[in-house]
Amino acid sequence: MDANALKQALQQRFGELAWQYSESRRGERRLVIPAGQLLSYLEFLRSDCGFDALLDITCVDYLHYRGAKDRFGLVYLLGTSTSGERLVLRCYLNEPNLKIASAVPLWEGANWLEREVFDMFGIAFEGHPDLRRVLLPEEFAGFPLRKDYPLRGRGERHNFERISRNQS
Amino acid sequence: MASGLLEPPASAIDQEYRWTLNFGPQHPATHTTLRILLQIEGERVLDARPDIGYLHSGFEKIGEHLNYNQYVTVTDRMNYISPLANNIAWHSAVENLLGIDVPLRCKYIRTILAELARISDHLLCNGACALDTGAFTAFLYAFNQREELYQIFETLCGARFTTSYTRVGGLMYDATPKFIEQVRQFVKNFPKVHADVCRLLNRNRIFVERTKGIGVLTKAEAISRCATGPVARASGVTRDLRKDSPYLAYGDFDFNVICSTDGDCFHRYLVRMDEMLESLRIIEQALENLPPGPVNVPMADRAILPDKSRVYNTIEGLITHFEVVMTNRGFQSPRDECYTAIEAPNGELGFYIVSDGSETAYRARCRPPSFIHFAMFSHLMKGHQVSDIVAVLGSLNVIAAELDR
Amino acid sequence: MDVSVPENVMVTKLDSLASWCRKNSLWPMPFATACCGIELMATGASKHDVARFGAEVFRFSPRQCDLMIVAGRVVMKMLPVLQRIWLQMPEPKWCISMGACASTGGVFDTYSVVQGIDRFIPVDMYVPGCPPRPEQLIQAIIDLQDKIQREGTLMGKEFQTEARQRPKRALLDIVTPQSAPRPEPLPIIPNVGV
User: Fold this and answer.
1) pLDDT per residue as tens digits for the range B31-59
2) Which residue of B85, B97, B219, B318 sits 20 to 30 Å from the alpha carbon of B43, by its own alpha carbon?
């Protein structure tokens, strides 16, 4: 689906003001959408625009980004299963309302991707079947990929018992 | 396979003799560090719940603290079976962000390396899958070829597999004639070993029975579960970035995308085996047409460190050197975000880079194919036997360092 | 008085005999987590063939092993597993820390990677390199054999000396002392939890 057709389809479905479409220098397509309507956009793009593959879900913490207005940017990378076409879907979230609809009903593969975003950034996906930490231990507190979390952690990596030769 | 196998029998739910079996994180068949919690009834797996993160080392957090050239060393350690593919993926993404177009010779050399990495990855994946399902000889054959590849990489950059070979806008060194000679030799010898491995496994009754019809992934499921690479292609998804959006020099070569429709472990193995031969074809064509010329972008672009001889002998070289290495100068990156992916041996390996204008990424997200493939493990395991776990694990090629990052 | 023994009889100390047996039949437990594990596999494979030094019997059950080779980075989720496996190994036992990550954390100076396993379990031999070449690992095994022959005793007295008990690192004061309570968990930011 080429850019103009995509824009037209979006306009018909969602009106003109809700979304912003842009292209990068290298022709990467981006779409910024309101966070509340994420699921309907995803569904529309999947069924009517042919973006049937979800490639990745990730998040960016814009805390120290110069000139950024929003704290978190959620990024959904959509593609097609037949060609190399791609679309970057973005929406913004701010504290304290870090909640967004889960994409698991549309793509099974979103399950772990959303768990990872929850693990690293603490964004809750509503309607997710099993929202637990995936990479870090259950008892871990804090969200390491947030910008206010230090690279070397807060001492978690040293917090173990030592085994000496006597004990073993 | 009968569809009834996928669902646990209703009567089994209430029965008390279901066992919970812990598989890993230290287990010979997990190769690295995975943990699976199994609910079993007799030999049948009712539920397999993966528990990962036993190798989570904060790659993405490091990416926010190392600059675009330094981070390549960390990508080596991501998928350590095919580090060159990671190097190339990372620097393709950075070059896409900075708007650098590398010279043709660099593209060709990178293509050769990406395909060598694919061969080494598939060799280990298939060899280890065979090892786990009881065919030890095939593993030794495959590992022997990997030693050959290690020697090629060592000639190229001095390290056996933590190569760190690419740089922003080029390569660490140009490929030497000795390297090209070694690759030619490898291309000549490899088909024989490939045929040997095929003869050992393709009609090996034990191997075929342990993999055929096991872990079936249909096309619809492959799309819904975001599979890419050989796993998706074995299920009939024809997506291959090398063909669909040719990057590097893939547009210049003639090769086929290997697909299958069955989507079981055996066909994933077959797809990988045939992909190696296609890779060999690409390498052959690239070697024949390897263009002369520089491998790095011109010095004026201020993206890459200039030659030492120019640093010592010319004032421009010296200035450029300092411009690049000084912490507050470095190269200029636009305030932008971009996603760039390559077809890595395991599937689509992409980097999503957010730049805030400095020489360090503001956010370096990696799309790890292993992570996405391992997510469907519990789906693939439902209704199978305990002994099928190793076959499914082997055919998904889960690399823990890429899985957990 | 002149004591003569037949030609096929040798007189030695029991300690030395036990050490001689032990050093030539090390059974490694490959605790391979990351890249170094691939080099560990290469060490065991046909080209480098660690069987020449009597250490080829890789066993994945800690109960059968006496040499733990920690190959690759150990992260905080993995460390309790490592400690447990170490405790399960029977005495006498030795530990090789293979590669920069296992010895010091290497390039991974991050929130989740343990900065050197010797902070938490005893280590006998360190192998530098990222990853070390198979030759380096073989050298470490040879050195460990020397060490076992040199100071090994039948009853394992060498493990109880003062020097062995002393923590090895100057950095150890960073580590929270065992008696100190675990730090309070950090507060979870409200409105985020599940």
Assistant:
1) 677 888 888 888 888 888 888 888 888 88
2) B219
